Amino acid sequence: MADQADFAEQAMPLMSGLYAAAMRLTYNSSDAEDLVQDTYLRAYRGFGGFEAGTNLKAWLYKILTNTFINTYRMKQRRVQQVELDDVPDYSLYRRMGGLETVSLSRTPETQVLDGMPDDEVKLALESLPDQFRIAVILCDIEEFSYKEIADILDIPMGTVMSRIHRGRKLLHDKLWEYAAERGLIPNVERPAAAAHAGGQ
Amino acid sequence: MDCDQMLNLINHYMDGGLSQWRHRAVARHMNDCPPCADHHNAHIQFRQQVASKCFEEAPAGLRLRISESLGVHPSDGSPLR
After folding, report:
1. Cα-Cα-Cα-Cα dihedral sign, residues A34, A38, A44, A45
2. Is B7–A118 a contact, with Cβ atoms under 8 angstroms apart?
3. pLDDT in tens, A129-182
4. What whole-number distance in Å separates Cα of residue A112 and Cα of residue A93?
């Protein structure tokens, strides 16, 4: 049993991360602020039942995602139900003509992302369907393990993995699409179609 | 392990989701295969870039409202009194 007096000291430093996640989920700062505030108040009220010494950060993200799914998402739009197959995410490399053409050290992919404004990257992440977006945020931004994410979202590990991998692939593709539209892609042989379609 | 097998496991490897022996097999393959090692590095860099580009600072007003409702200092969460 945890002491409520300890809650704020442990939870307040986690606010920027929670706010960033809330922004990507709700798409706007006023809903994001409400979601984060709700999360803190719910967590504070429930802190007595939180087992001291366990993972407070994971617990806060569980409250945040549940609150989002149960309240905010309903308000925004219909629940998206997509469960796609796990797809290995080497799409960019394949499109660039395979591993052989990837230059050493600085890959085109990293260079392309470097040149992209933060807001575009945020928009790309926000374009992912909820379940993939949440998985990518928890894994790649908040650095939770598969196991922690399975606990946060109450889903099996296999589902966690497929959502993360699929989500990353969707994000790659979205960013690549944006970069191509803006002419940000350096001189790279374009893509798989040519290389893998079985001739010209 | 060949490059295709390696590519199929790279997400799991990066996330620490492989069994010990598979993890070692992937590490061994990368040791002998610079393109795969580069590929792995690119994945890691990509992830870090996305994370840093999506950073947000919690607004001061939000911090203040939450600390007021919890009865603590907004700076460090220590009790008011």
Report:
1. positive
2. no
3. 999 999 999 999 999 999 999 999 999 999 999 999 999 999 988 998 888 888
4. 13
The two three-digit tokens of residue A32, written as one number: 């994001």
* Top-confidence range, A49-53, A121-125, A182-186: A121-125
What's the gap in Å between the CA of B25 and the closest CA on chain A? 18
Domains and CATH numbers, chain A: 4-76 (1.10.1740.10), 91-196 (1.10.10.10)
Alpha-carbon dihedral A114, A19, B64, B80, rounded to 10 degrees: -110
Residues ≥6 apart with Cβ < 8 Å to A87: A165, A166, A169
In whole angstroms, what is the distance from residue A105 CA to residue B38 CA?
6
Please write the tens of the pLDDT for every residue from A74-117. Answer: 665 544 444 444 444 444 444 444 433 444 345 567 778 888 89
Q: Is A144 touching B (CB cutoff 8 A)?
A: no
- SS3 string of B15-36? CCCCCHHHHHHHHHHHHHCHHH
Tell me which residues of chain A, numbers 115 to 134, contact chain B at a CB-CB cutoff of 8 Å. Answer: 116, 118, 121-122, 125
